[in-house]
Amino acid sequence: MKSTLAITAVIFTIGVVTLPIVWGDNDFRWQEMNEYKNRSTGVAAVINPAYKEECGGCHMAYPPGLLPARSWTRVMSGLENHFGDNAELDAAAYQVIIDFLLTNSADNSDYRRSRKFSSSIASGDVPLRITETPYFRHEHDEIPDRVVSANPRVKSFSQCNACHTRAEQGSFNEHDIRIPGYGRWDD
Amino acid sequence: MKTIMTCVLLLFSVSVNTAQADDDTVNKLLQDYATQGVLSTDEKQGEQLWQKIFKGDGEFTERSCTSCHTRDLTATGKHIKTNKIIKPMAPSSNAERFTDSKNVEKWFKRNCLWTMNRECSAQEKANFIVYINKKIKF
Lengths: 187, 138
Description:
Number of strands of chain B: 4
Mean pLDDT of chain A: 86
Distance between the termini of chain B: 48 Å
Shape of chain A: globular
Order of helices and strands of chain A: HHHHHHHHEE
Structural class of chain A: mainly alpha
Order of helices and strands of chain B: HHHEEHEEHH
Strand content of chain A: under 5%
Largest interface: A-B, 14 and 12 residues
Helix content of chain A: 25-40%
Largest sheet of chain B: 2 strands, antiparallel
Strand order of the largest sheet of chain A: 1-2
Strand content of chain B: 5-15%
Oligomer: heterodimer
Mean pLDDT of chain B: 87
Radius of gyration of chain B: 18 Å
Number of strands of chain A: 2
Shape of chain B: globular
Largest sheet of chain A: 2 strands, antiparallel
Distance between the termini of chain A: 41 Å
């Protein structure tokens, strides 16, 4: 009786310890635990009010931890033609926003997923779109067109929050994915 | 006595200001346009320009204010490119409209450039404002 209890306790403990790992991400690496202060599988959430207001006025306020500092610098240097739109800012807002982006960029972040974005990009490359980064492509290479570009409720990979229901909170966990018209996504 | 009078006047002006915050912004904008030579406003012309379709390029060959804001100023719009929800334009449906003149000018600049490939004139902006401001939800 006692040994049955002990075995049950051991199994339970293993379960409790490994559950967050199994749930957290399927490409978990133990050695990475020590590399990053922040062990979250996400990226830092967007908390800057000016960024939310000015950039989030037209599109999802992309977490800065999805692109390296050099990319944000280039994005911010061409706001008069920002992917076909004028997105110029006054000097005060510009400074607040560029400071926020650079401080929290993928290469300056200690979030695990941010580091993956950062390390996937060759040092000479300056991608302007999150969707151009090798890590993004790798993570989405199995997603068929019909659920994204041919899906009127998604339209494009740029609409992170169409499927990643907690994208604006910085979570891109698989378990938070709900593809409109298709539901959960498990690979 | 003088102090009491001042207090009453002060209270009065504060209450008037809070009650007509929107009108203040609209008036300020229209006054700015007046100093730029706008002598009168035309709601009808505002409506026509709002619904006019302009030739664009790239992904969007036809562009209009209504591309994102819809033809109904009291309805919720959607950014044609990013799908982002846009709150109704008419102050009668969205009390945030015309409460910050700097914000109004910012969006005029951005959106006139996207739609018409040029900035709007003071006259065009004045017409838009009277058209949008008067739109009542039935």
